Amino acid sequence: MLLQVHNIPKQHLVRILHFDKKVDSYLSYSVPVLGVQEAFDKRAELTFLDAREFDEYSVSHIPGSRYVGYDKFKIETIKDIPRDKKIVVYCSIGYRSEIVATKLKNAGYKNIYNLYGSLFEWANEGHDMADKNGKSTQKVHTFNKKWSEWVLNPALVKVWK
Q: Could you give the CA distance from residue 28 to residue 37 in angstroms, rounded to a whole number?
């Protein structure tokens, strides 16, 4: 996570650093990670896959991303994507997406990345999100109340259930 430390209250900076530590603790780095800002900057050349459950995806997702799920993910659902295409997989913080990305890597996909910090980091950095109708939203499905503490952007509405 790249931080611009100026003008960030100390309390907020501490939470950001804790989030970074939390994300790092869940990853095994079985596939390369891509930072949110780099993914955002290169989004036109990337295919984004959402590895959360459909109720999470319906609340908000990265615009243009494709729902693939986690519990019932099957490689066959992306057989139309060329194996050399740059693919970024994301979930809430990166744990589930790393597992799906590893499956893609093992199936012969060459340019697979796990989005570091995933949708929570995307949202925390203030990037656009879309709802199930493709409209802009400020809602983030946080999986549960406990995980909502990692959505740090005060402009966002946290949803779980």
A: 21
Q: Where are the domains of the chain?
A: 33-159
The ranges of the chain with pLDDT < 70 are: 1-15
pTM of full prediction above 0.85 = yes
Q: Which of 98, 39, 111 is nearest to 70 (CA)?
A: 98
Instruction: Answer left, alpha or beta for residue 12, where phi above 0 means left and psi between -120 and 50 means alpha.
Output: alpha
Amino acid at 99: I
Which pLDDT value is given to residue 11? 54
- Report how far residue 51's alpha carbon sits from residue 53's, in angstroms, rounded to the nearest whole number: 7
Q: Select the CATH number that applies to the domain covering 33-159 from these four: 3.40.250.10, 3.50.80.10, 1.10.3470.10, 3.30.70.20.
A: 3.40.250.10
What is the pLDDT at residue 9? 52
Cα distance between residue 53 and residue 57, in whole Å: 6
Residue bearing tokens 């499956």:
103
Question: What is the spatial order of strands in the sheet that 86-90 belongs to?
Answer: 33-34, 111-115, 86-90, 47-50, 66-67
